[in-house]
Every structure is written in structure tokens, then in C-alpha cells.
Amino acid sequence: MAIDTDLERSPASLQQTSVEARRTEARAWFEGLRDRICAEIETLEREAPAELFPGEPATFTYKPWQRKTGSGGGVGGFLSNGRLFEKIGIHTSSANGRLTPEMARNLPGDGVSLDYVSTSISLIMHPRSPRVPTVHMNTRFLSTSQGWFGGGADLTPMLPEQRSQDAEDAVTFHAAMKRACDAHDPGYYDKFKPWADSYFFLPHRGVARGIGGIFFDHLNSGDFDRDFAFARDVGSALLEVYPAIVRKRMAEPWTDEERAQQLACRGLYVEFNLLYDRGTMFGLQTGGNTETIMSSMPPLVSWS
Fold it and tell me: Is 20 inside a domain boundary?
């Protein structure tokens, strides 16, 4: 009986085995991070002061889904109508699929392979209080004929006086992202912060979506373990810094005027996600789950 060993496998088979193993490793991390974040958010729901946030604390519900094209799927985590958070989507997915030739040409690998494997985590949190900023984070591993990591994290304060780079929450958030970057490469923050500033900008409005953070894509140093460690630290930094900001802000009362400002600022979120967000476009173009993709939309919003 023939024994299946690495020596008997073709180079393509060996490469695919390696990619699948890496995807499995990244997927396990993303799913574990999801569970830790959800547990922390449910704790915040219970901690929110009752005089500002009446009612029962909310918990997450989880909805598995399967892709309509290719193979794979994911789990959507949803929190709706909570005390502290009006709406949260935190989702993990893994997929095997096939790109269009046009999409493949715009990705590393120059269209050599249309087949891809991927795994990711993405989240968006919409607090009820306009004093508490909205946060977004995603990291992903994607491989065609080459593999890479991408993602980032950004903060969107709702009130005008909170949306400067030297505002307290902005300084706190950027310091956490910088620590994550500096632990891996002293040049990362100076590269990935401006990338976020550019990416999260709405040219039709001439304004930034928030105070930014970091954004990176096509990260492939040639060392998977190194790049994966950085992606993990971005997720861990978010888990550390955002609950700290929430706990500092959630006891602050707000006015009707500030609530109106929050709803107007959320309009920028909707416009960005529908017009410019790469994750939204990629998910819709590759047969992703529409409910999880569109869960980034805020529950209430206004435009002037």
C-alpha cells in the first residue's frame, strides 16, 4: 500500500496543504478573539449605569451561515437593542472560492490563480450614548497564489469636540495601536496610520469618518508567523483599549442635541460603507452573507 508522504506530493499539493493549515490556525484565533470580545461586551452591558441605561442587559445571538458559491461560511454574532449598545455585529468566516479575473488582477499574485482561501473576523459597535465612540475592527488572512494579512481598527467619536487627533480618546486609541505596531516593526505605525487616514476619508464630503487608527493590507513579509503575530496583536489591542474607553465614557449623561449629532455622524458611516469599504465590496462580489455584511449599518441615522 502506498504511503502518502510529502515527498510524493506535487508542489501545488504541498502549497495547498500549507495554506489550509495556516487558514485553520488563523481561523481558530479569530474565533477565540470573537468569543473574548463578546464576553467583554456582555460584561459592559451589565456594568452600564441603570440611571442612564435602563432595562435588561443584552447578550449575543449567533447565526451560522453557508456560502451560496464556493464552500465554507461563518458565524454571525449579533447584539441588538442593548442597554449600552444599540447594535453590534461581530462575525467570523472562512471560505474557499473563485475570483473573477478582474478581481484577481487587483490582488497579490497578478491573477495567476483565481482560486482563493480566506478567513476573517470583523466587528462594528454602535453605542447608544453619543458620548461613547463607535469602533470598527477587522483582520483577515487571504491566499491566492500568494497569502497575506490585512485589516486594522479605527475609532469614530460622535461629537465634534471629540473628533480631533489630540482629543483624549483619540490619543488613548492611537497609543494602543502604536504599541501593537511597535512590538513588530518600528515603521509600521508611521505607515499604517496615514493609510487609515487616507482610507477612512470620504472625498465627496471632504471629511474623515472618524479619528482613524491603523489600516494595512497585502501584508506578506515572507514570514507567516511574524505577520500572523501582528494581526493577533491588533485584535488584542482593540480588546484592551476599547472597553477602557467605554468604561470611562458610559457614565456621562448626554443631551438631545448630542444625540442628534450622533445620528448625523452615523450618516458618514453609512456612506463610507456603501461607497468605499473594501470588505463590503469583496463580500458582496464573492457570495458572502448579506445579513452579516450589512450589519455594519447603524440602527438609527439621520441626514441633513
Answer: yes
CATH number of the domain at 28, please.
Answer: 3.40.1500.10
**293 — pLDDT class (breaks 50, 70, 90):** confident
* SS3 label, residue 113: coil
Catalytic residue among 91, 126, 136, 174: 136
In a domain, 205, yes or no: yes
Q: Count up the domains in the chain and report the number.
A: 1
| Residue 255 placed within a domain | yes
Q: Do the Cβ atoms of 109 and 144 come closer than 8 Å?
A: yes
Given a cut of 80, whether residue 112 has pLDDT beyond it is no
Among 278, 245, 301, smallest CA distance to 122 is for: 278
Helix (H) or strand (E) holding 219: strand 212-219
Q: What is the pTM of this model?
A: 0.90
The verdict on residue 129 lying in a domain is yes
Report the pLDDT value the prediction gives residue 1, as an integer from 0 to 100: 35
Segments forming the whole domain that contains residue 13? 9-296
- Tell me if 116 sits within 8 A of 144, measured CB to CB: yes
- DSSP 8-state secondary structure symbol assigned to residue 200: T
Catalytic (active site) residue 136: yes
pLDDT mean over 229-247: 98
Over its C-alpha atoms, the chain yields an Rg (Å, rounded) of 20
HSE (CB half, 13 Å, CA atoms) of 37?
31
Mean pLDDT of all residues in 258-266: 97
